[in-house]
Amino acid sequence: MTDTPTLPIPRPGILDITPYKPGKATAEGVAHPVKLSANENILGCSPAAREAYLAAAGDMALYPDGRGNPLRAALAARYGLEPDRLILGCGTDEIFALLNQTYLEPGDNIIQGEYGFGAYAIGARANQGEVRYAAETNYRIDVDKVLEQVDDRTRLVFIANPANPTGTFISRDEVERLHAGLPGRVILVLDGAYAEFNSDPGFDDGLALARTAGNVVVTHTFSKLHGLAALRVGWAYAPAAIADAVDRIRLPFNTSIAGQAAAIAALADEEFQALSLAHVEQWRPWLTQQFGGLGLEVVPSTGNFILIGFARSGGKVAGAAEAFLASRGLIVRGVGGYGLPDHLRVTIGLEAHNRAVIEALSDFLGQPTAT
């Protein structure tokens, strides 16, 4: 007679998952550090969104609209989309998890880039799915490498475009080539968390492709450009059949009254959006030049952050640089968990923050500060 367990046991694979670790928010011995580790909007959020959030305080005893219909309507009007094809989530992380839960059976697989966002893999493994990593060329998604990984058990391909933590992107033509090479049963998920920051004429977030394709899902978030990270509001545009399937397991009331209200107000505040984009457009090239002037590897970014690389040393130099910056009250993101132990990711801050980062790195590297 076999012994039976005396305690609950998680399903196979759960305890093999490495939990997601967000960017640090504190620095030892520093009372008020500058947080440049999570790609948050350094300008905060729209004043109109803040007012809408505060106005919602009187409704805390009420359940929100379960389908988020007011926010669906606002998104549909802004982007020319069909409201019934929109999926709302507690951040886009929930949407990724729902897609994995809806379409994966044990033994199926997903494909993502070599340095892809960790949430994709966590959701797949939670459903006993295999995660396949496509090698990237120059920190950039390689369409051919992705397609080489596809087999009969592939169900989802996750592409962050622009990518996190690299900031690189693939063009509209490359996205279309990737889609054309996928079987119709494989869902192409285009994660557009940083899409608004990409002004390259060859870039497209994929909404036009998703309108006519039966297997393309495009996601966006209110956490980055709109500065509503604390409220956890994400959305996706999907084929009607996919939206319907996901909605059957989506938890009710997954976006709050305050979150929906603030998101609607943020969506309408184009002045704040323009200000946020202009700030990134001003300081991203400056930081790129300054990092390069210090002899660091700089990965060309189209996000609100920049990935910098140190000489290969098993992460020792990058780790020491991260600690040195923290001692100066500047928190950046070590990305060893993404397979990049020799790199740091730095969110674009205010002018004083950006200059302080360059000065601190200059001191760390023993070089004079560039002008």
Task: Explain this structure.
- It is built from 12 helices and 13 strands.
- Helix content is 36%, strand content 16%.
- The protein is of the alpha/beta class.
- It has helices at residues 47-55, 69-79, 91-103, 118-126, 143-148, 172-181, 207-212, 240-247, 257-268, 270-293, 316-327, 351-365; strands at 34-35, 86-89, 109-113, 130-134, 154-160, 187-191, 216-221, 234-237, 297-299, 305-309, 330-331, 333-335, 340-347.
- It has 2 domains: 14-44 and 271-365, Aspartate Aminotransferase, domain 1, CATH 3.90.1150; 47-269, Aspartate Aminotransferase, domain 2, CATH 3.40.640.
- The longest helix has 24 residues, at 270-293.
- The strands form 3 sheets. Strands 2-8-7-6-5-3-4 form a 7-stranded mixed sheet.
- A hairpin with a 5-residue loop joins strand 9 (297-299) and strand 10 (305-309).
